[in-house]
Amino acid sequence: MIETALHPTPRPRDVLREQLRAVGLALRVPAAATVALVGLVTLLLTAELLREGGRVDFHPEHQMLPSVVGLLLPIAVWRGEARFGAGFLWTLPVERRRHALARVFAGWAWLMAAIALFVLWLLAFTLLSGGSLLAEETLRLLPSYSVRAPGPIDPAAVRSVPWTPQPLLWLVPFTAATGTYLLASALALGSRYPLRWIIGTVLGVFLVGAIGDAADVKWLAFGPSNPLESLLNGPYGLDTLFTARTESLKIDVTLSTGESVVVWRGLPDLGQWAAATLLWIGAGVLALLAAASRHREGRPA
Amino acid sequence: MSRLIHSDPEAGACAVATHGLCKRYGGETALEGVDLWVPDGAVYVLIGPNGAGKSTTLKVLMNLERPDAGTAEVFGLDTVRRGPEVRAQVGYVPEHHDHGYRWMTCGRLLRHVAAYYPAWDPAYADHLSRAFDLRLDRRVGALSKGEARRLHLVLALAHRPPLLLLDEPTDGLDPVARNRTLALLAEHLADSPTTVLVSTHQIYEMESLADHIGVLREGRLVAQMPRDELKRTVRRYRIEVPEGWEAPPELRSAGPRRPGAGREFQWTLVGEEREVTDRLTLSGARVREVTTLGLEDAALAFLPEEVSR
User: Beta strand A250-254 with B90-93: parallel, antiparallel or unpaired?
Assistant: First the structure.
């Protein structure tokens, strides 16, 4: 028989609101450092534009910074929290898996806000420098380019094509940061020692390659590098997620005339970007749910 | 192997009950078949040497550790299946002092925790903060051990939880702060209907508040009973025995025999004094003296001699 009046658990929206506040506070220091950095870059860019003229075109999809921020943000989001064991977060009256996901969501919300500000900053720079938002550009296309035969290029093989950037590409910084943030959060939440896993994996790949090289075993030497190349620069690789391939499709070549030019191996494909984004974000969500399940209550010991 | 010495569970409601609780860390046994019974409204003091399993027991009740076997309930709620509801009833002071976010100020941490407890009483939190001389603008990471302890106590008390789980609550406090803490705790218990399960090495500190005592030794609960029963039934007997004397098997020992002069020795036994004396006499021993023990000595009698000394 229970005689004591039991206390209720907090409402989910109160928990979410408090997590947004707490994570916001935890991010104050890195945010202040980022603002200082952006201020410095603004000064330098402004000085250069005033000195040398020119303009900045609006291409948020070219920026790798949001992906890097998404990758590192979980470090700040989970600052001071013992993710395993009797951590402070787990002593509060909320189901642990949901609580962890609430914190990840709070971090993501701040990340999106920060990226929105970053995109607005780029937009302001574009407009102030007289740059264009969606103006048609002429690209040099070289579909026959091969990495394995990088010799001088016949100028006749290069053709000029008109290309208008799609506004949908403005979403790239948001989706790229979301993908890296989800994957990094999954690693932070699912592993006691995430840095050991990252360093161990990188060392493992290099070690296998080095052993293959030393033993002159080609399949071993190149074995890890092919999937790694696909993972980074393949049609659905990280580069597609990060920049919609606007970086990896663009290369510097030397024409047989001796002139150095930037050519495109192909045009950015929105469908491919959308598929890669869905793939990576889907993988991130699944990894995050699996990682959060390590903390769920009620599972057998 | 020790036997559990306890009174029968009371017919009334219980705030905390565990059944056959076991917990192992690798090859180490932290808890072994613990059947804890904390009546509603009791101040239950759990004592035991370091590593006896006191902190583990509290963590299991908070569902911060999962038991390998057995069950635990808080106000009838299974701690594993209904962890969040259980924690909503609990004010918890952990054993370690780095509980909370070091980068937050004390005031912000109080507001943070308040958001999780609909029953949080801001006026009471202010009162406790003032009473504990807590500077709310200080960062948690800059607090001394004693200050951190006081902050933990405010966090635990300010939502007036039905159950307090206090793991060494006075650890790190200076004597003045310790007395003030115990006075505030007594005041809290007078104002709010609360059950307290407190683990401590310093049983004398809790002597004025405790009404139930449990003794953990090497992960086993070797004794639990109301304070009055402990004081009434645990006595030290000075007895003289004949050559070749063997102790009656039905006697319940609370500790080793300490040799005295000649064939005399002292032995702490559990049971009604008349009953124990009759059994000793029937077995051929002569009871020379019976000493009443204070609460601390009675409880410590269940611990190994090197701990209780």
Answer: unpaired
Question: Looking at the partner chain, which of A79, A88, A93 has a beta carbon nearest the beta carbon of B88?
Answer: A93
Rounded Cα–Cα distance for residues B48 and A299 (Å): 30
Nearest of B19, B46, B31, B11 to residue B213 by alpha carbon: B46
pTM of the entire predicted model: 0.86
- The conformation of residue B95, written as its DSSP 8-state character, comes to S
Q: Which residue in B76, B108, B112 is closest to A2 by CB distance?
A: B76
DSSP state of B238: E
Residue-wise pLDDT for A198-246, tens only, equals 888 888 877 887 787 777 776 666 665 677 777 787 888 888 888 888 7
Contacts for A7 with CB less than 8 Å, ≥ 6 apart? B88, B89, B117, B118, B119, B159, B161, B162
Give the residue carrying structure tokens 């780095």: B98
A3: chain B residues, CB-CB within 8 Å: 13, 40
Structure tokens at A259: 């002139």
Asked whether B97 and B144 are in contact (CB, 8 A), the reply is no
Nearest to B88 among A9, A80, A297 (CB): A9
B117 vs A4: CB contact, 8 Å cut-off?
no
- CA-based nearest residue to B304, from B222, B213, B211: B222
The secondary structure of A108-158 as a DSSP string is HHHHHHHHHHHHHHHHHHHHHTT--SS--EEEEE-TT--TT--SPBPGGG-
Within 8 A of A17 by CB-CB distance, chain B residues are 115
Query: Chain B interface residues facing chain A, Cβ-Cβ under 8 Å?
Result: 12-13, 15, 40, 59, 62-68, 75-76, 80-81, 83-89, 92, 94, 99-104, 108, 112-113, 115-119, 159, 161-162, 193, 195
SS3 B77: strand
CA A10 to chain B, closest CA, distance in angstroms equals: 5
ipTM for the predicted complex: 0.87
**Cα A156 from chain centroid?**
37
- B53 with B216: CB under 8 angstroms? yes
Check: CB of residue A108 under 8 Å from CB of residue A220.
Answer: no
* pLDDT tens, position by position, B235-266: 999 999 888 888 888 887 777 777 777 788 88
Q: What residues in B contact A100, CB-CB < 8 Å?
A: none
Closest CA to B80 of B100, B56, B64, B102: B64
Instruction: Tell me the shortest Cα–Cα distance from B227 to chain A, in angstroms.
Output: 23
